[in-house]
Amino acid sequence: MIDFPIHTALGVTFFSLYFLSMLGLALVILLENRNPLKTIPWIIVLLTLPGIGLVFYFFFGQDNRRRRIISRRTYRRIMRPLSAGGPRQDKVNVPPAYRPLMRMLNRNGRTPLLYGSHIDIYTSGQEKFTAFLEALRSARHHIHLQYYIIADDEIGRCVRQVLIERARAGVEVRVLYDDVGSWSVPHRFFDAMRNAGIEAHPFLRVVFPLFTSKVNYRNHRKVAIIDGRIGFMGGMNIADRYLRGVSWGVWRDTHFRIEGKGVHGLQSSFLIDWYVVTRQLIKGKDYYPDEKFYDDNLMQIFSGGPTGRWRILLQAFIFCITNAKRYLYIQTPYFLPTEGLTQALQTAALGGVDVRLMLPERSDTRSAHLASHSYLDDMLRAGVKVYFYRAGFLHSKLLVSDDEIACIGSANFDFRSFEHNFEINAFVYHRPFAESLRRMYMDDLRSCVPVRAYDWARRPFHLRLIESFLRLFSPLL
């Protein structure tokens, strides 16, 4: 009889159990029926990189699509006021080509049409924060803020002081901020709000950012609601750089001020997130006051995220691209499209649609910027017109098509916005609004340089190699 040392037996037992657990986890990933392009790499990582692969999967690989963060009953209670006083769905003036999109958003996200809003467009931080601070100071009942970044800098402290003043005057002030986006902000910044009676909470709090699966799922929304009558949404956080720009130029962004029924869509999105974080159900007429009709536009405000059965925001973008007939103009700071988006853009361009893609020439995120470049060869070969914005950093997120529909909000054209982030966008069905955004886009073209396919293909080999390597990490950038 052969005697094995105890430590050898323990080692064999440990590695056997570890291997079985890795095999079981690989089986779980397989049964999730994901895209094979995602499933196979994760299985290979788990089986070839024991330990490290498990850590990476725990941080970045888990699929939350089947996770429910709010009950259907609570969701319906929060969303119910949006349907009151709205237009009949069979009497609205939605362009025929986009009625299936309207129905899809309403069916999957319970986002009814919101009629008659007034929308102001801001393309600079100075415009946005002037109107924003004025609106905050006018608050009489409540202020609801939700931002990815609220910085402890000059504009951040200015906003905080106004919030404190309104709270002391008896206004209800509620603030949500992303825990990773605002991770560098000292606790005392938000403690000063709480000490003044402001309810301030982090979204998906991460105690140890390097040791939690929550770090990959961030709330990227930028929303403000004042008294249920005035709302703000778009691409700007609360930080000085949106006012002062970057070292190489201006910070070009797009933000929107909304009055009217559209504000109720922003309110419901905020109150859902507030319930998820605090388990407090906020409701009542004061949060959805009666509004007059300012215009004849129609909008649907949709909150996309990594939970729920469908990637509705991604589906909606693909729908808009594939239904474009004359033109499709896109602005985005980061261009890391899914395979479906890539095929849709190429198909539209090859079919004769004037597809234009505007990106920053320089970026605040070097890795995402270089990875974006790896996608441009195929875009240019298909006939997509690509432009680099040179006057500063282009952070605007915009899609406008055929003078009939526009998509505005917080989502970038990348994996993170469509797969991992909690985003909020509005689809506006209104010719004058779409025309104004098209004119704005054409004005921005004056600050751009076109990218020529021949010149782009001749860039240095080492640069193309780096871009292709970083492209492998597109879902994480």
From TrEMBL:
Belongs to the phospholipase D family. Cardiolipin synthase subfamily. This is Cardiolipin synthase. Catalyzes the reversible phosphatidyl group transfer from one phosphatidylglycerol molecule to another to form cardiolipin (CL) (diphosphatidylglycerol) and glycerol. HAMAP family: Cardiolipin_synth_Cls. The active site is at 220, 222, 227, 395, 397, 402. It catalyses: 2 a 1,2-diacyl-sn-glycero-3-phospho-(1'-sn-glycerol) = a cardiolipin + glycerol. InterPro entries: Cardiolipin_synth_Firmi, Cardiolipin_synthase, CLS_N, PLD-like_dom, PLipase_D/transphosphatidylase. It comes from the Bacteria. It is a multi-pass membrane protein. SUPFAM superfamilies: Phospholipase D/nuclease. GO terms for biological process: cardiolipin biosynthetic process. Keywords: Cell membrane, Lipid biosynthesis, Lipid metabolism, Membrane, Phospholipid biosynthesis, Phospholipid metabolism, Repeat, Transferase, Transmembrane, Transmembrane helix. The lineage of its organism: Bacteria, Pseudomonadati, Bacteroidota, Bacteroidia, Bacteroidales. One of its GO terms (molecular function) is cardiolipin synthase activity. Residues 215-242, 390-417 form the PLD phosphodiesterase domain. Its EC number is 2.7.8.-. It is found in: Cell membrane. It comes from Tannerella sp. oral taxon BU063 isolate Cell 6/7/9. The chain crosses the membrane at residues 6-30, 42-60. The keyword DNA-binding does not apply. One of its GO terms (cellular component) is plasma membrane.
